[in-house]
Amino acid sequence: MTSIVEIHDLVKRFAPTPEKPEGTLAVAGISMKVEEGEIFSFLGPNGAGKTTTISMMSGLLAPTSGDVSIGGFSITKQPLEVKRLIGVVPQEIALYPELSARRNIEFFGRLYGLEGKELSARCDEVLDFVGLRDRQKERIDTFSGGMKRRVNIAVGLMHRPKLVFMDEPTVGVDPQSRRNILDAVKLLNEQGMTVLYTTHYMEEAEELSNRVAIIDHGKIIGIGKQIELLQQIGEKDRLLIKLNPETTAQAAEVAQKVKGVDKVNIEDGKLEILSSAGRRTLPLIITELDDAGYPPLSIEIVEPNLETVFLHLTGRALRD
Ligand SMILES: Nc1ncnc2c1ncn2[C@@H]1O[C@H](COP(=O)(O)OP(=O)(O)OP(=O)(O)O)[C@@H](O)[C@H]1O
Ligand SMILES: [Mg+2]
């Protein structure tokens, strides 16, 4: 396997602000590789450092220290060579609202040196690809959030990059656009493009990725194929217990003390319990809760997933 991306001890410290006089260590030393042909996901909660990492990888932000090599070129020393290889779909929509979808795509295509027939043909291709050919003449400011995202993606693909960075491309979009975007990512990958995808949706990382890096507080806290990450946490089960909402907090304290319980969290008003022997621990938890006067209303055993891995590694839930 060939690595298309190599990240070497990447650090970004933002200068102090009145709100944060100590400054912000947004990326705290990340080293990893992305192999050619993969869909690789950064999975992490708000503020984890995903966008800061992508911004440094694409040359939009200078690292405090460390470097990234893409296709053998250093982003700090050979940024122009790197920029030819990569397409960037930023988290924030970057389009001209008063121009049509097509004019926007053409504009960015010209920046990459496309012109004439080639520009026009490539523009048709990317519009087809994101399913917006029939809406191409409409102004961006009349588009839904999902449609704007799709134009943003089209822009990032104009110059046929070998590697594309997509930063939370499905946040705030309608279900149809979301489906369209996820399918587009898979199709791009089948056509040979390497994709670096960031998300805080565990389901998207699970559906798309060959490998995942779980990022929290600017650090990679887990990396590998999903199955490897799940194996890391061992035979753990996740239990969801619904109780009278007024007693959930007290019940959490009771559950925490039960033998075999590793972590307890309150999620959507339910107790979320991580246990090393879920099925065997369950009767004990029920008895203890009952005895303490907090009888469960419903109980669910959930198969471990990336959410469980995150909970195990950080003691917190991934969701907002
Ligand atoms: N320009 C900046 N100046 C100061 N602090 C910043 C700046 N950009 C980001 N940060 C801080 O760096 C940390 C990481 O932010 P970043 O945007 O990389 O996170 P993220 O994982 O992309 O989060 P989200 O899921 O919300 O997009 C946060 O604490 C954020 O407040
Ligand atoms: Mg971000």
Number of domain modules: 2
What are the bound molecules? adenosine-5'-triphosphate, magnesium ion
Radius of gyration equals 23 Å
**CATH domain fold name of the largest domain:** Rossmann fold
Derived structural class: alpha/beta
CATH superfamily of the largest domain, by name, is P-loop containing nucleotide triphosphate hydrolases
What is the 3D shape?
elongated
Give the CA-CA distance, first to last residue. 36 Å
- Write out the strand line-up for the largest beta sheet, numbering strands in chain order: 6-7-8-3-9-10
The profile of the biggest β sheet is: 6 strands, mixed
CATH classification class of the largest domain = Alpha Beta
- Point out poorly predicted stretches: none
**Which range does the strand content fall in?**
25-35%
| H-E string | EEEHEEHEHHHEHEHEEHEHEEHEH
Please report the total strand number as a whole number: 14
CATH architecture of the largest domain: 3-Layer(aba) Sandwich
Please work out how many helical segments DSSP would assign.
11
Q: Let me know the average pLDDT.
A: 91
| Oligomeric state of this protein | single chain
